[in-house]
Design a protein that fits this description.
By secondary structure, the chain is of the alpha/beta class. The protein is built from 15 helices and 16 strands.
Length: about 450
Protein backbone atom coordinates (compact mmCIF):
# COMPACT_ATOMS: atom_id res chain seq x y z
CA UNK A 1 0.00 0.00 0.00
CA UNK A 2 1.03 3.62 -0.43
CA UNK A 3 2.27 3.92 3.15
CA UNK A 4 2.97 1.39 5.87
CA UNK A 5 -0.31 0.01 7.33
CA UNK A 6 1.15 -0.42 10.79
CA UNK A 7 -0.58 -2.58 13.34
CA UNK A 8 -0.03 -2.17 17.06
CA UNK A 9 1.36 -5.61 17.77
CA UNK A 10 4.78 -7.05 18.57
CA UNK A 11 5.85 -10.62 17.89
CA UNK A 12 6.96 -11.90 21.28
CA UNK A 13 9.38 -14.39 19.72
CA UNK A 14 11.29 -11.95 17.49
CA UNK A 15 10.69 -8.45 18.83
CA UNK A 16 9.52 -7.43 15.36
CA UNK A 17 6.25 -6.19 13.95
CA UNK A 18 3.62 -8.69 12.94
CA UNK A 19 3.39 -9.64 9.27
CA UNK A 20 2.20 -6.98 6.83
CA UNK A 21 -1.17 -7.46 5.15
CA UNK A 22 -1.18 -8.58 1.52
CA UNK A 23 -0.23 -6.11 -1.21
CA UNK A 24 -3.05 -3.74 -2.14
CA UNK A 25 -3.46 -5.16 -5.66
CA UNK A 26 -3.66 -8.73 -4.36
CA UNK A 27 -6.10 -7.73 -1.64
CA UNK A 28 -8.36 -5.82 -4.04
CA UNK A 29 -8.47 -8.74 -6.49
CA UNK A 30 -9.07 -11.25 -3.68
CA UNK A 31 -12.02 -9.16 -2.44
CA UNK A 32 -13.53 -9.06 -5.91
CA UNK A 33 -13.01 -12.81 -6.34
CA UNK A 34 -14.44 -13.59 -2.90
CA UNK A 35 -11.21 -15.14 -1.60
CA UNK A 36 -11.08 -12.71 1.33
CA UNK A 37 -14.18 -12.30 3.44
CA UNK A 38 -15.98 -8.97 3.38
CA UNK A 39 -18.97 -9.21 5.67
CA UNK A 40 -21.60 -6.66 4.61
CA UNK A 41 -23.76 -6.89 7.76
CA UNK A 42 -23.03 -3.27 8.59
CA UNK A 43 -23.34 -1.75 5.11
CA UNK A 44 -25.20 1.52 5.38
CA UNK A 45 -25.83 3.12 8.75
CA UNK A 46 -25.36 0.17 11.06
CA UNK A 47 -26.46 1.99 14.18
CA UNK A 48 -30.22 1.72 13.90
CA UNK A 49 -30.75 2.72 17.53
CA UNK A 50 -34.09 2.21 19.27
CA UNK A 51 -37.64 2.98 18.30
CA UNK A 52 -38.76 6.46 19.38
CA UNK A 53 -40.77 5.08 22.29
CA UNK A 54 -37.70 3.49 23.89
CA UNK A 55 -34.86 5.14 25.81
CA UNK A 56 -31.37 3.64 25.79
CA UNK A 57 -30.57 4.91 29.27
CA UNK A 58 -33.55 3.12 30.85
CA UNK A 59 -33.43 -0.69 30.94
CA UNK A 60 -37.16 -0.75 31.64
CA UNK A 61 -37.60 0.87 28.25
CA UNK A 62 -34.70 -0.63 26.26
CA UNK A 63 -34.78 -4.18 27.65
CA UNK A 64 -31.95 -6.52 28.62
CA UNK A 65 -31.30 -10.13 27.67
CA UNK A 66 -28.74 -12.85 28.23
CA UNK A 67 -27.77 -15.39 25.56
CA UNK A 68 -26.20 -18.56 26.92
CA UNK A 69 -24.10 -20.85 24.78
CA UNK A 70 -25.72 -24.25 24.32
CA UNK A 71 -24.44 -26.62 26.97
CA UNK A 72 -23.51 -23.89 29.46
CA UNK A 73 -23.16 -25.37 32.93
CA UNK A 74 -26.10 -24.60 35.27
CA UNK A 75 -23.46 -23.43 37.70
CA UNK A 76 -22.71 -20.45 35.43
CA UNK A 77 -26.27 -19.20 35.63
CA UNK A 78 -26.29 -19.75 39.37
CA UNK A 79 -23.06 -17.76 39.72
CA UNK A 80 -24.56 -14.90 37.70
CA UNK A 81 -27.87 -15.00 39.60
CA UNK A 82 -27.39 -11.71 41.53
CA UNK A 83 -26.76 -9.83 38.28
CA UNK A 84 -29.58 -11.58 36.43
CA UNK A 85 -32.06 -10.81 39.18
CA UNK A 86 -31.03 -7.16 39.19
CA UNK A 87 -31.46 -6.92 35.42
CA UNK A 88 -34.80 -8.76 35.55
CA UNK A 89 -36.07 -6.22 38.08
CA UNK A 90 -34.82 -3.28 35.99
CA UNK A 91 -35.79 -4.51 32.51
CA UNK A 92 -39.24 -6.01 33.10
CA UNK A 93 -40.85 -2.97 34.71
CA UNK A 94 -42.83 -2.03 31.60
CA UNK A 95 -43.32 -5.30 29.73
CA UNK A 96 -42.62 -8.97 30.43
CA UNK A 97 -40.38 -9.50 27.40
CA UNK A 98 -38.13 -6.65 28.49
CA UNK A 99 -36.01 -9.31 30.20
CA UNK A 100 -35.06 -12.45 28.23
CA UNK A 101 -32.96 -15.55 28.82
CA UNK A 102 -32.18 -17.46 25.63
CA UNK A 103 -30.06 -20.55 24.97
CA UNK A 104 -28.28 -20.37 21.61
CA UNK A 105 -27.93 -23.41 19.33
CA UNK A 106 -24.52 -25.02 18.81
CA UNK A 107 -24.33 -23.41 15.34
CA UNK A 108 -23.72 -20.01 16.98
CA UNK A 109 -20.04 -20.90 16.85
CA UNK A 110 -20.09 -21.34 13.08
CA UNK A 111 -22.48 -20.63 10.23
CA UNK A 112 -25.33 -19.42 12.45
CA UNK A 113 -25.63 -15.66 11.92
CA UNK A 114 -26.94 -12.80 13.99
CA UNK A 115 -29.48 -12.13 11.26
CA UNK A 116 -30.69 -15.73 11.43
CA UNK A 117 -30.95 -15.51 15.21
CA UNK A 118 -33.00 -12.31 15.11
CA UNK A 119 -35.31 -13.59 12.39
CA UNK A 120 -35.81 -16.81 14.30
CA UNK A 121 -37.05 -14.84 17.28
CA UNK A 122 -39.32 -12.61 15.25
CA UNK A 123 -37.13 -9.52 15.60
CA UNK A 124 -36.32 -7.03 12.87
CA UNK A 125 -32.91 -7.25 11.23
CA UNK A 126 -32.94 -3.68 9.99
CA UNK A 127 -34.48 -0.46 11.17
CA UNK A 128 -34.78 0.65 14.81
CA UNK A 129 -34.70 -1.97 17.57
CA UNK A 130 -38.05 -2.72 19.18
CA UNK A 131 -37.31 -4.05 22.70
CA UNK A 132 -40.58 -6.01 22.74
CA UNK A 133 -39.17 -8.10 19.89
CA UNK A 134 -35.63 -8.42 21.27
CA UNK A 135 -33.98 -6.43 24.08
CA UNK A 136 -31.54 -3.75 23.01
CA UNK A 137 -28.89 -4.82 25.57
CA UNK A 138 -27.67 -8.38 25.07
CA UNK A 139 -25.05 -10.22 27.12
CA UNK A 140 -23.41 -13.26 25.51
CA UNK A 141 -22.24 -15.88 28.02
CA UNK A 142 -19.69 -18.22 26.51
CA UNK A 143 -16.36 -18.24 24.72
CA UNK A 144 -15.84 -17.68 20.99
CA UNK A 145 -15.65 -21.42 20.38
CA UNK A 146 -19.31 -21.65 21.47
CA UNK A 147 -20.49 -18.17 20.37
CA UNK A 148 -18.34 -16.98 17.51
CA UNK A 149 -16.82 -13.52 17.23
CA UNK A 150 -18.63 -13.08 13.89
CA UNK A 151 -21.95 -13.64 15.64
CA UNK A 152 -21.01 -10.97 18.17
CA UNK A 153 -20.01 -8.49 15.45
CA UNK A 154 -23.24 -9.06 13.55
CA UNK A 155 -25.45 -8.71 16.60
CA UNK A 156 -23.55 -5.63 17.72
CA UNK A 157 -24.34 -3.88 14.44
CA UNK A 158 -27.90 -3.35 15.70
CA UNK A 159 -27.86 -4.03 19.44
CA UNK A 160 -25.63 -3.13 22.40
CA UNK A 161 -23.70 -6.35 23.02
CA UNK A 162 -21.23 -7.58 25.62
CA UNK A 163 -19.64 -10.92 26.41
CA UNK A 164 -18.67 -12.79 29.57
CA UNK A 165 -16.35 -15.76 29.36
CA UNK A 166 -14.43 -17.20 32.31
CA UNK A 167 -12.76 -20.52 33.05
CA UNK A 168 -13.90 -20.55 36.70
CA UNK A 169 -17.37 -20.29 38.24
CA UNK A 170 -16.02 -18.09 41.00
CA UNK A 171 -15.01 -15.48 38.43
CA UNK A 172 -18.57 -15.31 37.09
CA UNK A 173 -19.78 -14.88 40.66
CA UNK A 174 -17.18 -12.23 41.46
CA UNK A 175 -18.11 -10.23 38.37
CA UNK A 176 -21.84 -10.42 39.09
CA UNK A 177 -21.32 -9.32 42.69
CA UNK A 178 -19.07 -6.43 41.64
CA UNK A 179 -21.65 -5.06 39.19
CA UNK A 180 -24.45 -5.33 41.75
CA UNK A 181 -22.31 -3.60 44.40
CA UNK A 182 -21.46 -0.79 42.00
CA UNK A 183 -25.06 -0.23 40.92
CA UNK A 184 -26.46 -0.32 44.43
CA UNK A 185 -23.86 2.12 45.72
CA UNK A 186 -22.14 -0.38 47.99
CA UNK A 187 -18.66 0.17 46.54
CA UNK A 188 -16.51 3.32 46.48
CA UNK A 189 -16.99 5.61 43.50
CA UNK A 190 -13.90 6.03 41.37
CA UNK A 191 -12.26 9.35 40.67
CA UNK A 192 -11.37 10.65 37.23
CA UNK A 193 -9.52 8.94 34.43
CA UNK A 194 -6.01 7.77 33.62
CA UNK A 195 -4.29 7.52 30.24
CA UNK A 196 -1.42 5.04 30.02
CA UNK A 197 0.28 5.86 26.71
CA UNK A 198 3.36 3.91 25.68
CA UNK A 199 5.98 5.03 23.19
CA UNK A 200 8.85 2.63 22.61
CA UNK A 201 12.20 3.72 21.22
CA UNK A 202 12.74 3.60 17.44
CA UNK A 203 9.11 2.60 17.00
CA UNK A 204 6.97 4.70 14.63
CA UNK A 205 3.75 2.82 15.39
CA UNK A 206 3.73 3.51 19.14
CA UNK A 207 5.01 7.06 18.55
CA UNK A 208 2.09 7.87 16.25
CA UNK A 209 -0.34 6.20 18.62
CA UNK A 210 0.95 8.33 21.48
CA UNK A 211 0.98 11.69 19.69
CA UNK A 212 -2.11 11.25 17.52
CA UNK A 213 -4.37 9.21 19.82
CA UNK A 214 -3.32 9.02 23.49
CA UNK A 215 -2.42 12.67 24.05
CA UNK A 216 -5.44 14.13 22.18
CA UNK A 217 -7.75 11.77 24.06
CA UNK A 218 -6.18 12.74 27.38
CA UNK A 219 -6.98 16.36 26.50
CA UNK A 220 -10.59 15.45 25.72
CA UNK A 221 -10.97 13.46 28.94
CA UNK A 222 -9.59 16.35 30.97
CA UNK A 223 -12.17 18.71 29.50
CA UNK A 224 -15.03 16.29 30.21
CA UNK A 225 -14.22 15.60 33.84
CA UNK A 226 -15.97 17.94 36.30
CA UNK A 227 -12.77 18.89 38.10
CA UNK A 228 -10.42 18.35 35.19
CA UNK A 229 -8.76 15.40 36.94
CA UNK A 230 -6.87 13.32 34.45
CA UNK A 231 -3.75 11.30 35.24
CA UNK A 232 -1.37 11.23 32.29
CA UNK A 233 1.08 8.33 32.42
CA UNK A 234 2.93 8.81 29.16
CA UNK A 235 6.20 7.90 27.44
CA UNK A 236 8.99 7.25 29.99
CA UNK A 237 6.45 6.96 32.84
CA UNK A 238 4.43 4.21 31.12
CA UNK A 239 6.31 1.33 32.68
CA UNK A 240 5.09 -2.05 33.84
CA UNK A 241 5.69 -1.16 37.49
CA UNK A 242 3.72 2.07 37.14
CA UNK A 243 0.71 0.29 35.62
CA UNK A 244 0.78 -2.40 38.31
CA UNK A 245 0.86 0.28 41.01
CA UNK A 246 -1.96 2.27 39.42
CA UNK A 247 -4.29 -0.73 39.33
CA UNK A 248 -3.34 -1.91 42.82
CA UNK A 249 -3.37 1.42 44.67
CA UNK A 250 -5.43 4.07 42.85
CA UNK A 251 -7.50 2.60 40.00
CA UNK A 252 -9.45 5.34 38.18
CA UNK A 253 -13.04 5.21 37.00
CA UNK A 254 -11.91 5.15 33.36
CA UNK A 255 -8.60 3.73 32.16
CA UNK A 256 -7.32 4.17 28.61
CA UNK A 257 -4.20 2.27 27.53
CA UNK A 258 -2.51 2.69 24.16
CA UNK A 259 0.45 0.87 22.68
CA UNK A 260 1.46 -2.50 21.37
CA UNK A 261 -0.24 -5.76 22.24
CA UNK A 262 1.94 -8.82 22.68
CA UNK A 263 1.43 -11.56 20.07
CA UNK A 264 2.50 -15.19 20.23
CA UNK A 265 2.31 -17.64 17.36
CA UNK A 266 -0.25 -20.40 17.09
CA UNK A 267 0.91 -23.44 19.05
CA UNK A 268 2.95 -21.46 21.57
CA UNK A 269 1.90 -22.80 24.99
CA UNK A 270 1.97 -19.25 26.39
CA UNK A 271 -0.34 -17.80 23.75
CA UNK A 272 -3.66 -18.03 25.57
CA UNK A 273 -2.18 -16.59 28.77
CA UNK A 274 -0.22 -13.69 27.25
CA UNK A 275 -1.77 -12.77 23.90
CA UNK A 276 -2.80 -9.11 24.04
CA UNK A 277 -0.64 -8.30 27.07
CA UNK A 278 0.33 -4.61 27.18
CA UNK A 279 3.88 -3.99 25.91
CA UNK A 280 5.21 -1.28 28.23
CA UNK A 281 7.96 1.31 28.00
CA UNK A 282 10.32 -1.28 29.51
CA UNK A 283 10.73 -2.83 26.06
CA UNK A 284 13.56 -0.74 24.53
CA UNK A 285 12.43 -1.12 20.94
CA UNK A 286 13.33 -3.22 17.92
CA UNK A 287 16.78 -1.75 17.26
CA UNK A 288 18.07 -2.48 20.75
CA UNK A 289 16.02 -5.62 21.46
CA UNK A 290 15.47 -7.56 18.24
CA UNK A 291 14.88 -10.90 19.98
CA UNK A 292 12.33 -12.57 22.24
CA UNK A 293 10.62 -10.27 24.71
CA UNK A 294 10.91 -11.15 28.39
CA UNK A 295 8.19 -10.79 31.08
CA UNK A 296 9.75 -7.55 32.34
CA UNK A 297 8.70 -5.92 29.05
CA UNK A 298 4.95 -6.43 29.25
CA UNK A 299 1.96 -6.44 31.59
CA UNK A 300 -0.01 -9.70 31.43
CA UNK A 301 -2.88 -11.17 33.44
CA UNK A 302 -0.58 -12.70 36.05
CA UNK A 303 0.95 -9.28 36.70
CA UNK A 304 -2.29 -7.88 38.12
CA UNK A 305 -2.09 -7.95 41.89
CA UNK A 306 -4.60 -10.23 43.56
CA UNK A 307 -5.15 -7.39 46.03
CA UNK A 308 -6.33 -4.98 43.32
CA UNK A 309 -10.00 -4.03 43.76
CA UNK A 310 -11.17 -2.68 40.39
CA UNK A 311 -14.86 -2.39 41.24
CA UNK A 312 -16.40 0.43 39.21
CA UNK A 313 -13.64 0.68 36.58
CA UNK A 314 -14.10 0.61 32.81
CA UNK A 315 -10.94 -0.03 30.77
CA UNK A 316 -10.43 0.81 27.10
CA UNK A 317 -7.35 -1.01 25.83
CA UNK A 318 -6.07 0.08 22.42
CA UNK A 319 -3.77 -2.78 21.42
CA UNK A 320 -3.72 -5.83 19.21
CA UNK A 321 -5.63 -8.79 20.68
CA UNK A 322 -6.66 -6.75 23.74
CA UNK A 323 -10.15 -8.30 23.67
CA UNK A 324 -9.55 -11.60 21.93
CA UNK A 325 -7.86 -13.72 19.29
CA UNK A 326 -9.55 -15.44 16.33
CA UNK A 327 -8.36 -18.77 14.98
CA UNK A 328 -7.88 -17.21 11.52
CA UNK A 329 -7.73 -13.62 10.35
CA UNK A 330 -9.39 -11.83 7.43
CA UNK A 331 -6.60 -12.84 5.02
CA UNK A 332 -6.78 -16.58 5.73
CA UNK A 333 -8.14 -17.56 2.30
CA UNK A 334 -5.83 -15.36 0.25
CA UNK A 335 -2.99 -17.89 0.12
CA UNK A 336 -2.80 -21.57 1.07
CA UNK A 337 0.21 -20.94 3.31
CA UNK A 338 -1.28 -17.96 5.17
CA UNK A 339 -0.62 -18.76 8.86
CA UNK A 340 -3.36 -19.47 11.37
CA UNK A 341 -3.55 -16.97 14.22
CA UNK A 342 -4.34 -19.56 16.90
CA UNK A 343 -5.36 -23.19 17.27
CA UNK A 344 -8.71 -21.97 18.62
CA UNK A 345 -10.34 -18.58 19.22
CA UNK A 346 -10.18 -17.21 22.76
CA UNK A 347 -10.84 -14.14 24.90
CA UNK A 348 -7.97 -12.08 26.32
CA UNK A 349 -6.75 -13.46 29.64
CA UNK A 350 -5.82 -9.96 30.86
CA UNK A 351 -9.33 -8.71 30.13
CA UNK A 352 -10.78 -11.70 31.95
CA UNK A 353 -8.62 -10.98 35.00
CA UNK A 354 -9.64 -7.30 35.05
CA UNK A 355 -13.32 -8.29 35.00
CA UNK A 356 -12.89 -11.00 37.63
CA UNK A 357 -11.34 -8.42 39.96
CA UNK A 358 -14.20 -5.97 39.70
CA UNK A 359 -13.90 -4.04 36.43
CA UNK A 360 -17.35 -3.33 34.99
CA UNK A 361 -16.25 -3.66 31.38
CA UNK A 362 -13.21 -3.93 29.14
CA UNK A 363 -13.37 -2.46 25.65
CA UNK A 364 -10.75 -3.87 23.34
CA UNK A 365 -9.96 -5.27 19.93
CA UNK A 366 -10.18 -8.75 18.45
CA UNK A 367 -7.22 -9.58 16.18
CA UNK A 368 -4.71 -6.93 15.12
CA UNK A 369 -5.57 -3.27 15.53
CA UNK A 370 -4.41 -1.01 12.70
CA UNK A 371 -3.55 2.66 12.78
CA UNK A 372 -6.58 2.97 10.48
CA UNK A 373 -8.47 3.13 13.78
CA UNK A 374 -7.66 6.82 14.04
CA UNK A 375 -6.56 7.84 10.55
CA UNK A 376 -8.74 8.41 7.51
CA UNK A 377 -5.95 6.48 5.79
CA UNK A 378 -2.38 5.77 6.85
CA UNK A 379 -0.98 8.91 5.23
CA UNK A 380 -3.51 11.61 6.11
CA UNK A 381 -4.85 13.50 9.11
CA UNK A 382 -6.06 11.67 12.17
CA UNK A 383 -9.73 10.98 12.82
CA UNK A 384 -10.23 10.49 16.53
CA UNK A 385 -13.84 11.62 16.96
CA UNK A 386 -15.16 8.08 17.35
CA UNK A 387 -12.81 7.56 20.30
CA UNK A 388 -13.43 11.03 21.72
CA UNK A 389 -17.22 10.73 21.65
CA UNK A 390 -17.21 7.16 23.01
CA UNK A 391 -15.09 8.17 25.99
CA UNK A 392 -17.19 11.30 26.54
CA UNK A 393 -20.34 9.18 26.55
CA UNK A 394 -18.83 6.86 29.15
CA UNK A 395 -17.91 9.80 31.37
CA UNK A 396 -21.47 11.15 31.09
CA UNK A 397 -22.73 7.86 32.51
CA UNK A 398 -24.21 6.32 29.37
CA UNK A 399 -24.39 2.50 29.38
CA UNK A 400 -21.12 1.17 27.98
CA UNK A 401 -22.74 -0.86 25.20
CA UNK A 402 -24.66 2.17 23.97
CA UNK A 403 -21.53 4.34 24.11
CA UNK A 404 -19.80 1.77 21.87
CA UNK A 405 -22.44 2.26 19.18
CA UNK A 406 -20.25 4.93 17.56
CA UNK A 407 -17.75 2.27 16.46
CA UNK A 408 -20.60 0.43 14.77
CA UNK A 409 -21.55 3.64 12.99
CA UNK A 410 -18.01 3.94 11.69
CA UNK A 411 -18.04 0.29 10.64
CA UNK A 412 -21.29 0.87 8.75
CA UNK A 413 -20.04 4.00 7.03
CA UNK A 414 -16.80 2.41 5.84
CA UNK A 415 -18.52 -0.86 4.89
CA UNK A 416 -20.88 1.10 2.67
CA UNK A 417 -17.96 2.91 1.05
CA UNK A 418 -16.13 -0.38 0.50
CA UNK A 419 -19.21 -1.92 -1.13
CA UNK A 420 -19.35 0.98 -3.58
CA UNK A 421 -15.62 0.77 -4.31
CA UNK A 422 -15.85 -2.97 -5.01
CA UNK A 423 -18.80 -2.44 -7.33
CA UNK A 424 -16.89 0.20 -9.27
CA UNK A 425 -13.79 -2.03 -9.31
CA UNK A 426 -15.80 -4.89 -10.81
CA UNK A 427 -17.14 -2.55 -13.49
CA UNK A 428 -13.59 -1.66 -14.49
CA UNK A 429 -13.78 1.94 -13.32
CA UNK A 430 -10.66 3.81 -12.25
CA UNK A 431 -10.37 2.74 -8.61
CA UNK A 432 -6.99 2.64 -6.92
CA UNK A 433 -5.93 -0.68 -5.38
CA UNK A 434 -4.75 1.23 -2.34
CA UNK A 435 -8.17 2.82 -1.88
CA UNK A 436 -9.83 -0.61 -1.77
CA UNK A 437 -7.19 -2.03 0.56
CA UNK A 438 -7.35 0.92 2.96
CA UNK A 439 -11.16 0.75 3.10
CA UNK A 440 -11.04 -3.00 3.82
CA UNK A 441 -8.59 -2.61 6.70
CA UNK A 442 -10.48 0.37 8.14
CA UNK A 443 -13.80 -1.47 7.88
CA UNK A 444 -12.64 -4.60 9.68
CA UNK A 445 -10.67 -2.61 12.23
CA UNK A 446 -13.81 -0.72 13.29
CA UNK A 447 -15.86 -3.93 13.34
CA UNK A 448 -13.48 -5.71 15.70
CA UNK A 449 -13.85 -3.36 18.68
CA UNK A 450 -15.94 -5.26 21.22
CA UNK A 451 -17.11 -4.96 24.80
CA UNK A 452 -16.37 -7.62 27.39
CA UNK A 453 -18.75 -7.47 30.34
CA UNK A 454 -22.38 -6.45 30.73
CA UNK A 455 -23.27 -3.85 28.05
CA UNK A 456 -25.63 -2.06 30.46
CA UNK A 457 -22.97 -1.10 33.02
CA UNK A 458 -22.10 2.57 33.44
CA UNK A 459 -19.56 4.71 35.23
CA UNK A 460 -20.34 6.38 38.54
CA UNK A 461 -17.83 9.14 39.21
CA UNK A 462 -17.06 10.90 42.47
Amino acid sequence: MASAPWSNGIDAATGGYLADPPAAADLARALVDGKVAFRPEASGDSAFDLIDEAEAGDLGSAGWGVLFAEGTSPGVREALAPLLELRREQASRRFDRGYREIVLPPAAAGAFTAEGFLRGHGAAVDGPVDPEEMPYYLLLVGGPEEIGFDFQYGLDAQHAVGRLCFDRLEDYAAYAEAVVRAEKGRSPRRRGAAVFGVRNEDDPASARTLTDLAIPLADVLGKNLPDGSIERILEEEATKARLERLLRETPPALLLTTGHGLARKSGDPRQSAEQGAIVCRDWPGRRVWNRSLVPEHYFAADDLSRDADLTGLIAFCFACFSAGTPATDDFAHLAPDWPAVAERPFVSRLAQRLLAQGALAVIGHVDRVWLHSFYLDTASARETRTFEQTLSRLLRGLPAGHAMDLFNRRWGTVASRLSILLHRFRLGEAVQDTEVGEAFLTCNDARNYVLLGDPAVRLSLV
